[in-house]
Recover the amino acids of this structure.
């Protein structure tokens, strides 16, 4: 089994043992190497000293060429059984004496050399000198058995130490590895149990406070997070489901094969299939009327191939199929949902039967309404024509008899006036006055009626010029009277000049009329500017009236004064009001009995172009 | 009516009272000679174009002025005016519309058709009198009609 696949316990043991034995081996090797080097050096030094002693002792023998003395000196070496052979060379490098004496010449080097370990032996060469004269060389050869013995002893010792240490290390690591392996194994077991049982409420037990402890904490924290996320996910899932089920639309999800993957409560009610029944059915077979099925399948294929679909992501109206085979109109929107490689479609379907009925109803009502508008317009046009014919007729025919009354009364006055008593002539005069008064009434009434029929022009009207013209036109009313007319700033306005002239004529002639008994009469004309509106006013110091009758003032034929006080038909202010209203303005009055009156009206200011 | 008499004024008026008052007014102004009356539009056209009761009349003997009411039985005043002004033989006759109507459309239409004056009959007789007298004076005594025109265009 390769090491990385071993159980953690064995891995720890193996690491421990390997480490400790390697360390021991290296230590022992170093120690032994050092010992051996020291030994070899000591040995070399010992034999070199011995060679120097022999060299010192043999100077005389060499000087005198005494071979026996030299051999005796060498014989002293027999006390050291490790010395195998020794010899003395003379100055010329020839053998002079040897030890043991029976040693063959082949056991010696032919001539002196350097000291060192050679051919499994230690060989020492030492020069023999007297004063500064070289006499020869001493040679010693020692065997290395001492060294070999020491090597062996060290090796055994090292092996013993290593074996013992490994045993101790094994026992120790067996005990100590639990500190690490137990928490990790516990963690591993917990993880395994959780992944098997999917129970995220289990927690790993924390044994120690080191990194393993941190790992356990982190693991437990992770479990808590997973548990929390699971809970959130489930809540969200529940909520989404509740939303989907409470939707007023049927929510239908299908997979890429067109099989129903989800089906909410509304879909159950709408189509008649329960959630369980609907799941897995092909959508086309379930809710799409036979005539649309092919198109649906084609559309899906097209989308899966090209990623586009004309009915996707927008509202479409079509008919849908109930379980009982009946069809009904629906509005639906389909959105593709992609998650990874999976494609699904979500459809929202609304039953629009009611809406369709309502639309049809509205259409019907509209048609009726249009018909009614046409009829009413026709009626109105007819009524308008009649009204026009009426006023045309009034304008012609009602005045003819009045002319006859007046004309023939005049004829009587002229032709037979002399034969009539004063009273008779006065009566005739009264008849004529009545007829003429009625003529004026008819004229005013027709003018008033005409106001509504005349189309309105809308141009800038120079109010100041208009007012001065009107005052000039009303000159006869001012003859022989003392009238003070104060004209303030009168800005231009927008409107129909002809109609607005009637407004000013009526208001100013009223002002002249109702100040008849004032001396001087004071008439003030002016304008106040308001946002959007010009507020024009005409103020007089005339008869005025009681404000409690103000509401009657603008009605047709409504008068607040008797005809013998002030002449009038009661149409003037009605005309004023109608003209101002047609211009979109307002008209009102402030007055007090005997203290004059102020008439106000509003018009749009001149449009700057 | 005497067909051969030269007619100076043709009054077309259906209301007898108005007619009588108009005649009275003209008489007072000493303009009552040579007056022809027509009581409706058809009668007026017969006279002007020498047809029916007036078949023997010469069309060249045009009246000096026609006083024309607008609201008339059978053929209305505007139609009479249109026929007069559309015919080269009669278009130079001065036509004064004398009517009760102040209706804008009548006024506009009359001028469009080529009326020479437009007078609204006032209710009071003095006004009526002065209107009739003034216009009678003007058209009869002051105005010089283009004499040549009718002869130039008469084919017979």
């Amino acid at each position: 089994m390769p090491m990385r696949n071993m159980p953690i316990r064995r891995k720890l043991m193996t690491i421990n043992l390997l480490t400790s034995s390697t360390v021991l081996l290296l230590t022992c090797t170093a120690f032994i190497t050092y010992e051996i080097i020291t030994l070899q050096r000591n040995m070399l030094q010992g034999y070199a000293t011995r060679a120097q002693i022999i060299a010192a002792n043999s100077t005389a023998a060499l000087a005198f060429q005494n071979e026996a003395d030299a051999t005796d000196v060498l014989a002293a070496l027999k006390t050291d059984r490790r010395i195998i052979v020794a010899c003395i060379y003379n100055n010329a490098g020839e053998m002079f004496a040897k030890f043991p004496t029976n040693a063959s010449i082949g056991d010696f080097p032919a001539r002196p050399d350097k000291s060192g370990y050679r051919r499994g032996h230690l060989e020492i060469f030492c020069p023999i000198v007297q004063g500064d004269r070289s006499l020869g060389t001493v040679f010693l050869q020692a065997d290395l058995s001492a060294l070999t013995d020491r090597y062996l002893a060290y090796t055994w010792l090292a092996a013993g130490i290593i074996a013992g240490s490994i045993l101790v290390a094994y026992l120790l690591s067996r005990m100590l590895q639990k500190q690490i392996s137990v928490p990790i194994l516990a963690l591993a077991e917990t993880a395994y149990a959780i992944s098997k049982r999917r129970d995220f409420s289990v927690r790993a037990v924390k044994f120690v406070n080191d990194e393993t402890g941190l790992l356990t904490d982190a693991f437990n924290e992770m479990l808590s997070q997973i548990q929390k996320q699971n809970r959130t996910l489930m809540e969200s899932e529940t909520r989404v489901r509740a939303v989907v089920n409470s939707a007023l639309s049927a929510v239908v999800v299908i997979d890429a094969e067109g099989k129903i993957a989800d089906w909410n409560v509304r879909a159950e009610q709408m189509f008649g299939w329960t959630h369980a029944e609907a799941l897995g059915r092909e959508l086309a077979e379930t809710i799409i009327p036979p005539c649309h099925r092919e198109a649906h399948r084609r559309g899906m294929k097209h989308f899966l191939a090209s990623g586009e679909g004309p009915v996707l992501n927008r509202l479409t109206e079509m008919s849908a199929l109930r379980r009982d085979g009946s069809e009904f109109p629906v509005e639906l929107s389909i959105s593709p949902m992609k998650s990874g490689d999976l494609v699904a479609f979500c459809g929202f379907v609304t039953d629009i039967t009611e809406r369709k009925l309502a639309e049809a109803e509205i259409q019907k009502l509209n048609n009726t309404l249009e018909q009614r508008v046409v009829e009413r317009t026709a009626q109105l046009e007819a009524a308008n024509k009649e009204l026009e014919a009426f006023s045309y007729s009034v304008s012609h025919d009602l005045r003819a008899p009045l002319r006859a009354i007046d004309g023939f009364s005049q004829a009587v006055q002229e032709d037979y006036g002399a034969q009539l008593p004063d009273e008779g002539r006065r009566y005739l005069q009264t008849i004529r006055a009545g007829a003429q008064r009625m003529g004026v009434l008819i004229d005013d009434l027709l003018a008033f009626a005409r106001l509504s029929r005349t189309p309105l022009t809308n141009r800038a009207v120079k109010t100041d010029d208009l007012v001065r013209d009107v005052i000039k036109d009303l000159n006869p009313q001012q003859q022989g009277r003392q009238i003070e007319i104060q004209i303030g700033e009168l800005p231009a306005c927008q409107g129909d000049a002809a109609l607005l002239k009637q407004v000013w004529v009526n208001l100013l002639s009223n002002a002249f009329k109702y100040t008849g008994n004032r001396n001087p009469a004071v008439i003030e004309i002016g304008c106040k500017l308001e946002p959007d509106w010009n507020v024009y006013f005409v103020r007089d110091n005339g008869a005025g009236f009681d404000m409690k009758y103000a509401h009657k003032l603008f009605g047709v034929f409504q008068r607040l004064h008797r005809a013998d006080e002030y002449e009038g038909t009661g149409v003037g202010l009605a005309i004023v009001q109608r003209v101002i209203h047609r211009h979109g303005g307002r008209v009102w009055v402030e007055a007090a009995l005997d203290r004059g009156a102020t008439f106000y009206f509003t018009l749009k200011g001149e449009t700057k172009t | 009516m005497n067909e051969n008499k030269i007619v100076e004024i043709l009054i077309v008026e259906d209301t007898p009272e108005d007619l009588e008052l108009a005649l009275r007014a003209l008489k007072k102004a000493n303009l009552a000679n040579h007056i022809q009356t027509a009581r409706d539009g058809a009668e007026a056209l017969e006279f002007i174009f020498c047809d029916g009761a007036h078949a023997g009349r010469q069309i060249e003997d045009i009246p000096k002025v026609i006083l024309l009411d607008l609201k008339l039985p059978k053929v209305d005043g505007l139609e009479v005016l249109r026929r007069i002004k559309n015919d080269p033989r009669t278009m130079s006759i001065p036509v004064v519309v004398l009517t009760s109507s102040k209706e804008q459309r009548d006024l506009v239409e009359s001028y469009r058709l080529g009326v020479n004056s437009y007078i609204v009959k006032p209710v009071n007789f003095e006004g009526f009198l002065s209107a009739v007298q003034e216009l009678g004076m003007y058209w009869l005594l002051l105005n010089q009609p283009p004499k040549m025109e009718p002869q130039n265009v008469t084919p017979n």
